Structure to design on (1253 residues):
């Protein structure tokens, strides 16, 4: 029951300084889980804090359920928030911490007891209710913080990097729990993180930000498969996409890219779309994901000679850092099941290998604007059919 | 001077590095002063621009405002009441009424006399007195320069406050109109009252402390700065019953600093001793306190708590007791001289004047106050440094031991840089505090022994007098010399401000934050 | 269509066969590289064994050295303890001296008795002075704590226009010597009838009024309390006032106690202001002025010196006990203040 609409939201901290956030337009549907992701200083937390009412809004409007909340105090916005450092009140027990918002609202004791114990049970922290935050581990504290937000039963649930203070193992566990928890909590979520894995696994939609601007909004699949620009392409996906200067060559109806002296054909839907858009030969930045580079043999005419720099054995896969003869470093992701143990051990520093790119899944970026030559809409209409096409037009 | 890049700097030898640093420090001074003046100029310019902006805004508000706003230009608070904020409006209006009444009945009178600080001397007249049922010779008080100066100052404060409030009143009208124009609601009186504990809570909390500071610090300081330009002293008390005092320009500064006078430069000598004292008092305490803390902290030393407690007792006991007593211990007929006599180390004709005698070497009493100050100061420094010493990351020491450092190297390469880094600002405040360290000197020597060479305007200062104790004597002594004490006060301020500015700018803590964390 | 696209991608995922792969990897025997590594590993082992012997040798010398330095430290600490305690032992001893009330050249009384204490309470207004000071201490500690905490809380937590200028202004005001304004403040208080006998009220005003300027230490403490606590509380629905007394105050207990303690102790030692404002009216003295007045001149010193010592003991004992009880808070405050600057 809570939609959030941000229109032209802008944040300026100091006069004449560069805005921390600008031109922020986003509509969040009821019960949607939206993740703001981006490198530090991109304005994601600032935006979240403006929604919460902790930062003043310098320009534009924020609406919750159709009501402009710009002038409202945080307490009047019906929101709950989980902080990065948990922000538990050290002098209160876990129970009192969770009951604090209810006490301020003068909720009767019975109701307080019911709601707090209920939330504690869901989160599995019942046995810690009489302890103080100091006596809890990081994961338990995080649960209490979530519990404190849960008992308020508010329309909007904000989370500001809630997992970044946990160690890697705990983070994975809590991430899974948040996915489960989400089904139990009936609200709209905004989740801020700098970690693209968290963003991809949690979000219904992801908002990728950089330098105060939205770079792309879309589902995890969309932003992964059809990045709008070079930044999104490099930011989403691990290990990150290989990008380098290249040349797009058109020969009649066929397209090729020049990569390290080798002319590789572009095929599949991408080639078709390039043709439809009538793209001519030009300089580009070529993007190839590590998983779309294969080791190949001499019989393959489109092979590039590289030298292995580092072999990172991850278990299920090998991240192979290789360097081309022109000195470009690339990462190749080799699934472990695909090559034998002998081969794996042969892939040591200095080994020469041959690689090739898959022609269907390359990304072409304009070297100046860094925009993707094939916009999401170009591919969207093809994939989603007529329906999507209409949506795009109406937008 | 040529700036070296990192690599060529690293190539220098140790001595060259020190030389380079010194040279670049001194070369930076002129630039630094230029920067300071530019900053000041920028500040003044910003204020000027702000005033101009405000004026433009006021004119615009009048031009574009509705009649409600325009009436507010004359009747303060009118607009607020009309916009539904009756509480604000009434307060504005009440303030205006009070201000006008005050100006008519008092303010104007005082201000008109500010230029002369009063002209009417007290007179003696025969006045009929109902108690004696006869005419009695009575003194009719004349003008009181003191009151004129004080009340004029208050009136000026009041006028500034009025102008500010008037401006706020108009701005509020403009903001309200803007809010109404954008279709939102203005804050109601009820919301205003709620905000006192919420949104505007900081104003609520600040109001009393700031009023206190304004009345008991800002106003008095401005008053005393003004006094420095008058001839206010015991012979010109200006209280309505004796001589008036009046403006004399920079004469007092001339008297004290003695431009080209050729007499003993009393101020310079006292300033020099003050700085010497502050230097020694600060650094002897600092290093000895740190040393004691390190001794107590050393691994393997038992009864740590006992040693600390013994020292801490000195802090707990009020200084006037311990210092007055110690002062008497070392007095001419005190216990120390008594014991020395008994042990036949000295004889009756040659007792040691620990606190000095007029005409004797001034350095014995000066040494004594520094020594006693160490006695007073070490416990504080021990407490402070203990905490910080324990915060030094132990792995630094472990690393240095693996690298082969001995205890002394550990001290100079790890402990000392860390301490200086962390306590840099504290050292500065404590240096300034020692410039104004009244208690020690006053309770131990009272500034004595008098030195007839240190004479200004008929008053004599002592060998151990700091500027602050001298100021105190001039304020409270038999021949109160308020004008001179005001000048000294201003000069102390200048000295402290300059030292603070310079040190603050070279302190590492302000530049390399987080080096040690 | 989407499925098809994806499907194609996955279908294409046919990796090279085993034999083929053996062909493509041009093996480059990294012989010299490996050899180098082995050498370094060995050398590390060697150096490790070499190091092992050294500490053992050092250890013996270290132990003896340590013992010597510890002994020296104990001697120094003992000497220091004596120097630091002697004045207090002396004052205690002298306060029991009966045979002479003036200064003498020895410490241990020839005749012991409580005469000085009895005289102190009967012949001087000492009780009144104690009362004055106690009242002063209570009033000042309550009001000053309120002022200081308000100021430091606001400066630590609120971002309002003019905050920086306000802090700079207070810094600049603090550079003026305090006694500069003595004469004006005396005249002001005199005008309001708060000097002489009523100087207690005048003193309360003077101590409290400008106390807001001493906000540094507690602001430093407030700054260490995470700001996200305030934010969490605001979202939980607390007003600023509720945050202040429900969240911040309980967490700031050490600094509250430190502020109260220092505020309470200040009037017991203050002397200059008190003397100036009391202005020879002994009913308005605090203990410091009163006791100092006992030995202000050489003549009065001859008759009152031991009484002064007794007075000093009476004042020092309760203050010291109080201080020792709350020592831990004082240390925390002082250390924090020094680090924050």
């Amino acid at each position: 029951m809570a939609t959030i609409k941000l229109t032209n939201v802008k944040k300026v901290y100091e006069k004449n300084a560069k805005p921390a956030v600008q031109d922020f337009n986003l509509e969040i549907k009821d019960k949607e889980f939206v993740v703001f992701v981006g490198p530090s200083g991109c304005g994601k937390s600032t935006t979240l804090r403006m929604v919460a009412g902790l930062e003043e809004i310098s320009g534009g409007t924020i609406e919750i359920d159709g009501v402009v909340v710009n002038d409202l105090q945080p307490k009047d916005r019906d929101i709950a928030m989980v902080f990065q450092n948990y922000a538990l009140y050290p002098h209160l027990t876990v129970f009192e911490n969770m009951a604090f918002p209810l006490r301020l609202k003068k909720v009767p004791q019975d109701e307080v007891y019911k709601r707090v114990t209920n939330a504690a049970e869901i989160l599995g922290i019942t046995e810690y209710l009489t302890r103080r935050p100091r006596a809890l581990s990081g994961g338990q504290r995080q649960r209490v913080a979530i519990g404190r937000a849960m008992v308020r039963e508010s329309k909007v649930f904000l989370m500001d990097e809630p997992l970044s203070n946990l160690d890697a193992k705990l983070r994975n566990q809590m991430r899974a729990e948040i996915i489960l928890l989400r089904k139990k909590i009936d609200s709209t979520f905004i989740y801020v993180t700098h970690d693209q894995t968290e963003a991809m696994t949690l979000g219904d939609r992801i908002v990728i930000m950089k330098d105060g601007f939205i770079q792309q909004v879309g589902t995890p699949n969309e932003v992964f498969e059809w990045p709008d620009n070079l930044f999104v392409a490099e930011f989403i996906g691990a290990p990150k996409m290989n990008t380098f200067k290249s040349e797009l060559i058109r020969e009649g109806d066929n397209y090729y890219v020049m990569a390290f002296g080798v002319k590789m054909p572009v095929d599949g839907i991408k080639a078709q779309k390039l043709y439809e858009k009538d793209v001519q030969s030009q300089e580009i930045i070529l993007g190839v994901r590590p998983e779309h580079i294969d080791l190949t043999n001499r019989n393959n005419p489109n092979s590039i000679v590289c030298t292995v720099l580092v072999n990172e054995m991850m278990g299920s896969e090998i991240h192979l850092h290789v360097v081309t003869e022109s000195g470009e470093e690339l990462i190749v992701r080799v699934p472990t099941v695909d090559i034998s143990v002998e081969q794996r051990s042969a892939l040591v520093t200095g080994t020469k290998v041959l690689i090739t790119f898959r022609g269907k899944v390359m990304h072409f970026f304009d070297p100046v604007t860094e925009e993707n030559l094939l916009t999401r809409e170009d591919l969207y209409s093809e994939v989603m059919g007529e329906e999507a096409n209409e949506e795009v037009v109406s937008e | 001077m040529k700036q070296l890049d990192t690599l060529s700097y690293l190539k220098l030898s140790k001595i060259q590095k020190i030389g380079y640093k010194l040279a670049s420090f001194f070369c930076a001074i002129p630039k630094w002063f230029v920067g300071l003046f530019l900053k000041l100029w920028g500040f003044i310019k910003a204020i000027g621009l702000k005033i101009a902006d405000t004026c433009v805004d006021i004119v615009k508000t009048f031009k574009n405002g509705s009649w409600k706003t325009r009436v507010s230009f004359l009747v303060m608070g009118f607009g607020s009441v009309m916009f539904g904020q009756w509480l604000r409006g009434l307060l504005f209006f009440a303030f205006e009424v009070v201000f006008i009444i005050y100006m008519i009945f008092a303010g104007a009178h005082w201000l008109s006399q500010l230029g002369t600080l009063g002209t009417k001397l007290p007179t003696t007249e025969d006045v009929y007195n109902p108690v004696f049922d006869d005419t009695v010779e009575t003194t009719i008080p004349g003008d009181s320069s003191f009151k004129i100066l004080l009340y004029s100052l208050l009136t000026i404060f009041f006028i500034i406050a009025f102008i500010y409030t008037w401006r706020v009143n108009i701005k509020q009208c403009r903001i309200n109109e803007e809010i109404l124009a954008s279709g939102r609601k203005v804050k109601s009186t009820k919301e205003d009252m709620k905000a006192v504990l919420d949104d505007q809570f900081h104003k609520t909390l600040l109001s009393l402390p700031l009023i206190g500071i304004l009345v008991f610090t800002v106003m008095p300081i401005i008053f005393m700065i003004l006094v420095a330009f008058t001839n206010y002293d015991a012979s010109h008390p200006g209280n309505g019953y004796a001589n008036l005092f009046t403006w004399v320009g920079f004469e007092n500064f001339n008297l004290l600093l003695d431009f080209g006078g050729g007499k003993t430069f009393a101020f310079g000598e006292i300033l020099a001793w003050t700085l010497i004292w502050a230097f020694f008092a600060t650094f002897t305490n600092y290093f000895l306190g740190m040393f004691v803390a390190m001794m107590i902290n050393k691994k393997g030393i038992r009864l740590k708590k006992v040693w600390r407690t013994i020292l801490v007792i000195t802090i707990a006991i009020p200084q006037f007791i311990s210092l007055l007593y110690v002062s008497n211990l070392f007095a001419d007929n005190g216990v120390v001289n008594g014991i020395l006599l008994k042990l036949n180390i000295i004889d009756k004709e040659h007792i040691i004047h620990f606190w000095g005698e007029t005409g004797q070497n001034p350095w014995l009493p000066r040494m004594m106050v520094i020594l006693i100050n160490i006695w007073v100061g070490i416990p504080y420094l021990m407490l402070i440094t203990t905490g910080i010493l324990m915060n030094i990351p132990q792995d630094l020491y472990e690393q240095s031991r693996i690298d082969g450092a001995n205890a002394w190297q550990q001290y100079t390469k790890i402990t000392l840089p860390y301490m200086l880094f962390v306590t840099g600002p504290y050292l500065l405040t404590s240096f300034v505090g020692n410039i104004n360290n009244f208690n020690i000197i006053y309770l131990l020597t009272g500034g004595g022994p008098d030195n007839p060479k240190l004479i200004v305007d008929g008053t004599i200062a002592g060998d151990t007098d700091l500027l602050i104790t001298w100021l105190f004597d001039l304020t409270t002594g038999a021949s109160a010399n308020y004008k001179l004490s005001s000048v000294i006060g201003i000069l102390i301020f200048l000295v402290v401000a300059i030292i603070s500015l310079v040190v603050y700018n070279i302190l590492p803590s302000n530049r390399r934050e987080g080096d040690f964390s | 269509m989407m499925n098809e696209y994806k499907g194609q991608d996955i279908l294409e995922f046919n990796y090279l066969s085993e034999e083929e792969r053996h062909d493509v990897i041009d093996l480059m025997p990294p012989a010299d590289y490996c050899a180098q590594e082995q050498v370094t590993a060995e050398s590390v082992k060697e150096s490790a064994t070499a190091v092992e012997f050294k500490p053992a040798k050092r250890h013996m010398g270290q132990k003896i050295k340590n013992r010597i330095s510890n002994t020296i430290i104990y001697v120094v600490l003992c000497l220091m303890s004596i120097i630091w305690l002697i004045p207090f032992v002396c004052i205690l001893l002298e306060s029991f001296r009966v045979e002479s009330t003036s200064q003498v050249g020895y410490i241990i009384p020839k005749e012991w008795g409580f005469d000085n204490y009895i005289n102190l309470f009967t012949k001087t207004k000492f009780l009144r002075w104690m009362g004055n000071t106690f009242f002063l201490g209570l009033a000042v500690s309550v009001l000053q704590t309120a002022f200081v905490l308000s100021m430091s809380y606001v400066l630590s937590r609120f971002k309002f226009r003019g905050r920086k200028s306000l802090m700079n202004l207070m810094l600049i005001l603090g550079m003026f010597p305090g006694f500069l304004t003595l004469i004006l403040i005396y005249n002001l208080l005199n005008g309001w009838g708060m000097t002489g006998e009523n100087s207690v009220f005048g003193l309360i005003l003077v101590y409290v009024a400008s106390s807001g300027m001493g906000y540094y230490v507690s602001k430093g403490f407030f700054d260490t309390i995470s700001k996200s606590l305030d934010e969490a509380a605001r979202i939980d629905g607390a007003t600023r006032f509720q945050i202040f007394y429900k969240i911040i105050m309980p967490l700031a207990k050490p600094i509250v106690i430190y502020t109260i303690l220092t505020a309470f102790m200040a009037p017991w030692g203050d002397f200059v202001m008190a003397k100036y404002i009391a202005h020879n009216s002994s009913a308005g003295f605090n203990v410091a002025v009163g006791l100092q007045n006992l030995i202000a001149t050489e003549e009065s010193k001859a008759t009152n010196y031991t009484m002064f010592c007794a007075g000093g003991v009476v004042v020092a004992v309760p203050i010291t006990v109080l201080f020792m009880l709350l020592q831990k808070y004082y240390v925390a405050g002082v250390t924090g203040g020094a680090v924050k600057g």
Observations:
- The mean pLDDT of chain A is 87.
- Residues 168-184 of chain A form the longest helix (17 residues).
